[in-house]
Amino acid sequence: MPEQAIRCVSAWLDGFGAVVRNGQRQQVSQLFDQDGSWRDMLAISGDLRTLDGVGEIEAFLDRHGGSKDFRVTAEPQVEYATRFGRYCLEAFFDFDTGIGYGRGIARFICDEMGGPARRTAWTVLTTLHSLKVQSPSKARAQEPTTAARGPDQRRNWLEVRHDEQEYADRDPTVVVVGAGQCGLSMAARLKELDIDTLVIERTRRIGDSWRLRYRSLRLHNETCANHLPYIPFPSTWPKYLPKDKLANWLEFYADSMELNVWTASSIREAKYDEDAGTWSIVCEREGVRRVVRPKHLVLAIGVSRIPKYPEMPGLADFSGITRHAHDYVEGTEFRGLSVLVVGSGNSGHDVAQDLYVSGANVTMMQRGSTTIVSLEPGAEKAAGGLYRQNRPIDDLDLIRNSATYPVRRQWLKNVTDEILDLDRDLIRRLHAVGFKTDTGADGTGFLMKYWRQGGGYYIDVGCSKLIIDGKIQLVQFTDLESFTQAGVRLVDGCTLEFDVVIFASGYMSIQDGVRSLLSDEVADRVGPVWGLDDEGELRNICKPTAQPGLWFIGGSLIEARSLSRYMALQIQAAESGVAL
Predict the structure, then answer these.
(1) Do 294 and 274 sit in the same domain of this protein?
(2) Which range (56-70, 328-342, 412-426) has the least confidence?
(3) What's the CATH number where 372 sits?
(4) H-type helices in 167-232, by residue range?
(5) Considering the domain boundaries, does residue 151 fall inside one?
């Protein structure tokens, strides 16, 4: 790396640090491109924020500048790289904010020949990595040798662990609802910070949230991207994880990390005491009710958990079997039967394909246009191979998180155009049989649909060809007149007979889940959960909500690992009396 590049970056960081310390908004135009952007994850704002353009950055510094003792603590690590479609000089840097330590990335656009970088930054990421405090809660299990020094020297490690998980003589500081990837990641992060955490899981085994789903399910992104915090998957594992392999890993992970999990448990009632600053949670565990009083309640229930059924004319008249994809396990149950699958997202396609392979006669009803992308090369193109790089997973998460919303949006538009070119023949043949496709509201493709609405796309692992070849029939919802006792009647007068209807129609919003678990009042106070706000940040995810003591985390294994760090730090700060 040329010394000149390192000197330029170091000089920029000196100026950036001075602006943050002193709030000198007049210097911003000398530090950022006019269309530059800055994402801050707790380090400066104490929040998850994205600032787009010099004007927003100046306004941000008016509010937060001068509030942190910001200083870079080591020489930046500098390299040339192509990120989000632009060739740039990229600099990782470490910094001190007075209350904690942070990590950041600054990027400077280079010309195509690798010439000198601009002196102003294209994108900046600042993240809080750790706090300079110890949590007052001491939940870490004692080593057997330590436990043996107590009055009862006969208690071994297993007995100590059993007592720790039972909470017979204490309340947890945090209760996490859901032992999927998000709940376990949160519990692991909090345990590393010595914050006493109990996970409540409604199924009988950890991992059942995956294990009990349809037989053919596997992840559609690569294993190398999906590690949980602290314990990576073995390098020998397959490229795309089968759901049962992941389910078993979650069970192993909870045991290895010594996480406190109550399975076969559910929350019957939860109320927040404003004066005490605690929740009163009635939990039923294998038929026995128990009240726990944590300070924090974390809902880690994925993007959603309540099956949604669409309004369908005449459905009450249908005499066959109806089921939601949430409860679908395998197609052999329906071998030889005529099945209508309502929905054309990932679940609808996977269920339809599994039914066909199992010997059912399958028809898919498409309710709206769908973003279709091939697994290879399409979805892999969008992933960009970031997590295949041989560098620490924390560094790769920083790179991913550094894609500010304006940069991510433009990059995904470009990538979606490239994918369309790669998938041109696939899309053309789908259109030929009447299947409707789109590329999202602004041409940003399936990834932005995931962040904005949690669905509406299909990553093709074989079902599209079955539709193209007519092995899975297709009918449009707009052609439906009504369900009948034996099936459906179309607007053109044709009738189709079905034995089974399976609704792959998605799930209710997390806000609706809050209504059923807590109350309408709390749900209305909190507002929508998931989807993007005006700055492109996920709404109410991994940040304080309008309901004191209530937090949310959701999404894929990547979000579970990456975002759990920042929510755990916020809870640690609250427990330690530190103002972020």
Answers:
(1) yes
(2) 56-70
(3) 3.50.50.60
(4) 181-192, 208-211
(5) no
